[in-house]
UniProtKB/TrEMBL annotation:
<feature type="domain" description="ABC-type glycine betaine transport system substrate-binding">
    <location>
        <begin position="48"/>
        <end position="316"/>
    </location>
</feature>
<keyword id="KW-0732">Signal</keyword>
<dbReference type="InterPro" id="IPR007210">
    <property type="entry name" value="ABC_Gly_betaine_transp_sub-bd"/>
</dbReference>
<dbReference type="GO" id="GO:0022857">
    <property type="term" value="F:transmembrane transporter activity"/>
</dbReference>
<protein>
    <submittedName>
        <fullName>Glycine/betaine ABC transporter substrate-binding protein</fullName>
    </submittedName>
</protein>
<feature type="signal peptide">
    <location>
        <begin position="1"/>
        <end position="20"/>
    </location>
</feature>
<dbReference type="Pfam" id="PF04069">
    <property type="entry name" value="OpuAC"/>
</dbReference>
<dbReference type="GO" id="GO:0043190">
    <property type="term" value="C:ATP-binding cassette (ABC) transporter complex"/>
</dbReference>
Length: 325
């Protein structure tokens, strides 16, 4: 991250709206791209756009997907990916310091719009967020992808074979019969959130107090679950690349307890009204992005060590959406 971007992220995170910290000087697109088979979009050629994003692997990759598609359409793109945390990106979008990015429906519904209960139907959740954010902030939500980066528990294949657990209902039965064999690792926040551990126990009808629960940093949980020694089960994000990289089995949320976190493009209303062609440029993401694709891209970064910009560009080239000179 450049010194300018570090300064901007710090300003946003600490004071939210800092009049002395504008985001107009974002960096350029990290890698060059050329137009896709349909060429550039004349109405967008030379138009300046600032793309924002969050500072975790999937957030960075999704930001680059948007940046490359807009650049291939002919826009002058400023890169403000890797802002420090969800609140920084959100505040930058609402205040007009960035124009566009990608966001999760569940995050906006509960964290930004202040709702305490999620809507677990994906379409219903997106519609509710779309309407509420339009009315309150003139933020436009384009149609969502099927990427759903929500919570679940994972286990090694050896543990899955031993326990027969494939769903969270199976996990609940194991807890009820032999809680000591269901050692479950999780991060601190998940252990107290109503859409986390306490609510899960209520929804699936088991006593959370009977389960040994080591608290760990998120990055440690995946490896500890893969070995099966410290963690028989582990809290995971369902599109994390380490799931595939470590050959973990993700339990099905068969009662649909966890909130829906579908990934969708968000745009400032004023900017989209001025440049409506953007929606058509970004529409292909809805068709090509799903959990399997996102896990693969995340794995290339988190497991294989590839550059997220290269991963994003490679994917768009493979899909025939951009070209490389």
């Amino acid at each position: 991250m450049t010194a300018v971007k570090r300064l901007l992220a710090t300003c946003l995170a600490t004071v939210l709206v800092a009049t002395g910290c504008g985001l107009s000087d974002g960096g350029s697109v990290p890698l060059p791209v050329g137009p896709g088979p349909d060429g550039t979009v004349p109405a967008l050629e030379g138009v300046r756009v600032t793309v924002g994003g969050k500072d975790f692997t999937e957030g960075v990759i999704s930001s680059y997907l948007v940046e490359f598609l807009l650049a291939a359409a002919g826009m002058e793109v400023s890169d403000m990916s890797s802002l420090a945390g969800s609140n920084s990106f959100r505040q930058a979008l609402v205040t007009g310091q960035v124009d566009i990015g990608m966001e999760y429906t569940g995050t906006a519904w509960m964290s930004y719009l202040g709702n305490s209960e999620p809507i677990r139907d994906p379409e219903g959740q997106w519609v509710a967020v779309r309407d509420a954010d339009l009315e309150a902030h003139d933020i436009r939500w384009l149609p969502p992808t099927t990427v759903d980066n929500t919570y679940s528990f994972a286990l090694s294949r050896a543990t899955a074979q031993e326990t027969g657990a494939r769903t969270l209902s199976d996990y609940a039965r194991l807890v009820q019969t032999d809680p000591e064999s269901a050692v479950t690792c999780m991060e601190t926040e998940f252990s107290v959130r109503r859409d986390g551990w306490p609510g899960l126990a209520d929804a699936y009808g088991f006593d959370a107090a009977t389960v040994p629960v080591p608290i760990m940093q998120p990055g440690i949980i995946y490896q500890a679950t893969a070995t099966g020694r410290e963690c028989r089960f582990g809290e995971v994000y369902t599109t994390d690349g380490r799931i595939k990289g470590l050959d973990l089995v993700v339990l099905e949320d068969d009662r649909r307890f966890f909130p829906v976190y579908n990934l969708a493009t968000v745009v400032r209303g004023e900017f989209l009204d001025a440049h409506p062609e953007i929606e058509e440029v970004l529409a292909p993401l809805v068709d090509v992005l799903d959990n399997e694709v996102m896990v693969e891209m995340n794995m290339r970064v988190d497991v294989d060590g590839d550059d997220p910009a290269l991963v994003a560009r490679d994917f768009l080239v493979e899909q025939g959406l951009v070209s490389v000179d």
